[in-house]
């Protein structure tokens, strides 16, 4: 895939997850103001995704990011102090969009079981679409010294809160560690599949097995 096509694919995933509207909602804004205010910052992040995926964090330079986003150095430093802040922004944006989509899916899923299965499917579809950057960010977030580590912990807390909000009105309360363990299972499965560049068939199997695991753990038959 050439650079132009790669950037187009990334933007398509971004829009599928809700795009600028979801970002504005997550940031608590209304109207056109937040969209305009965050447009340039988000465009830099989108352009940087392909650079980080192709070169890795260590090899990618600020000049690479400038070229990819087609912005001036002055514009870049208006929004970011360095390339790590760009990666940090990509991670936060990715989490915000994915969680926003999970919340939207609550409105159309008929039962907790259907929602859990749809959510797991979306999680792995997203990873399949932009795998290399997901793997890079996940591995970086696992480093205790990384700025991404704190964002990972907050993402887990948000996901745990979402599970509780959706499931506990209808099902028996669970020990929070149960939810956390299932989030860890999703994360570990994702890292393994991305690290091995698993086939679509393996990913489809993982979607089914992980969804079954969540449903069996959180929605046991009475």
Describe what this molecule looks like in 3D.
- This is TetR family transcriptional regulator.
- Keywords: DNA-binding.
- It comes from Ectopseudomonas composti.
- Residues 38-98 form the HTH tetR-type domain.
- GO terms for molecular function: DNA binding.
- The protein has 222 residues and is mostly helical.
- It folds into 2 domains: 1-77, no CATH class; 82-216, Tetracycline Repressor, domain 2 (Orthogonal Bundle).
- Helix content is 81%, strand content 0%.
- The chain has helices spanning 3-16, 19-26, 33-59, 62-69, 73-79, 83-108, 112-129, 131-141, 147-167, 176-195, 200-218.
- Helix 6 packs parallel to helix 9.
- The radius of gyration is 18 Å and the shape is elongated.
- The termini are far apart.
- Mean pLDDT is 82; it is low at 26-37.
What is the residue-mean pLDDT, rounded to a whole number? 82
- Morphology call: elongated
Supply the CATH superfamily name of the largest domain: Tetracycline Repressor, domain 2
Percent range for β-strand residues: under 5%
Helix content bin: over 70%
What is the count of DSSP helices, taking H or I runs of 4+ residues? Answer: 11
In N-to-C order, the SSE pattern is: HHHHHHHHHHH
**Given this structure, which CATH class of the largest domain is correct?**
Mainly Alpha
CATH architecture descriptor name of the largest domain: Orthogonal Bundle
List the helices and strands and how they pair.
Blueprint: H1 3-16, H2 19-26, H3 33-59, H4 62-69, H5 73-79, H6 83-108, H7 112-129, H8 131-141, H9 147-167, H10 176-195, H11 200-218
